[in-house]
């Protein structure tokens, strides 16, 4: 039995979880999220807890058991606390500025790069080199942060570029003179 999959998920106060066939919807103070459950698994709500069960020990059922439980738990955390990911802009002349709901990057290109946030995501700038991506959907927050980082990844020689907060960039030695 999956150690993670068999754990019940406690539903905090102010959150409602409803199961409608294969659709699990979670409503909370920050918003609403929905998730479609894979075929062999069953989800039930009992006594302020969500239980994920599997009918058999087939390989596919076992692999989806813990995943489904974690996705539901992530949705519950998202509608109560939300998720955020920090980004740092490192490099001489590299900066980030808020332009309404959009964000403008100066990353050494001949033009500024303007990023519009996807639906459900908010971008906030602190100072001129820190950016926070936040929202209720963990997957959407991570994807938005990865797409912003992809504009100018940190390079290994000087470490310049957009990196996650706390990310360690492995540095290379570069050329050695005679």
From TrEMBL:
GO BP of this protein: cytoplasmic translation
Superkingdom as given in the UniProt entry: Bacteria
Pfam families from the UniProt entry: Ribosomal_L6
PROSITE patterns named among the record's database cross-references: RIBOSOMAL_L6_1 (PS00525)
Residue stretches in coiled coil: none
Record InterPro entries: Ribosomal_uL6-like (IPR000702), Ribosomal_uL6-like_a/b-dom_sf (IPR036789), Ribosomal_uL6_a/b-dom (IPR020040), Ribosomal_uL6_bac-type (IPR019906), Ribosomal_uL6_CS (IPR002358)
GO CC terms in record: cytosolic large ribosomal subunit
Protein keywords: Ribonucleoprotein, Ribosomal protein, RNA-binding, rRNA-binding
GO molecular function, one term: rRNA binding
Residue ranges of domain Large ribosomal subunit protein uL6 alpha-beta in the record: 11-82, 90-164
Family statement: Belongs to the universal ribosomal protein uL6 family.
Its biological purpose: This protein binds to the 23S rRNA, and is important in its secondary structure. It is located near the subunit interface in the base of the L7/L12 stalk, and near the tRNA binding site of the peptidyltransferase center.
Entry-linked HAMAP family: Ribosomal_uL6_B (MF_01365_B)
Assembly description: Part of the 50S ribosomal subunit.
Name recorded for this polypeptide: Large ribosomal subunit protein uL6
Native source species: Microbacterium testaceum
């Amino acid at each position: 039995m999956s150690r993670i999959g068999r754990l019940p998920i406690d539903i905090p106060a102010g959150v409602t979880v409803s199961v409608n066939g294969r659709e699990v919807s979670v409503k909370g103070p920050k918003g609403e999220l929905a998730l479609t459950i894979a075929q062999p698994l069953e989800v039930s709500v009992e006594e302020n807890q969500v239980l994920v069960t599997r009918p058999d020990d087939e390989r596919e059922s076992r692999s989806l058991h813990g995943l489904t439980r974690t996705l539901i738990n992530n949705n519950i955390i998202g509608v109560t606390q939300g998720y955020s990911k920090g980004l740092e802009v490192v490099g001489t002349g590299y900066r980030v500025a808020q332009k309404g709901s959009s964000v403008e990057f100066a990353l050494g290109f001949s033009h500024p790069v303007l990023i519009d946030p996807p639906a459900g995501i908010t971008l906030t700038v602190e100072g001129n080199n820190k950016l926070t991506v936040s929202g209720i959907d963990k997957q959407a927050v991570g994807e938005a942060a990865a797409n912003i980082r992809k504009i100018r990844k940190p390079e290994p020689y000087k470490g310049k570029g957009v990196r996650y907060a706390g990310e360690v960039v492995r540095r290379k030695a570069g050329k050695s003179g005679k």
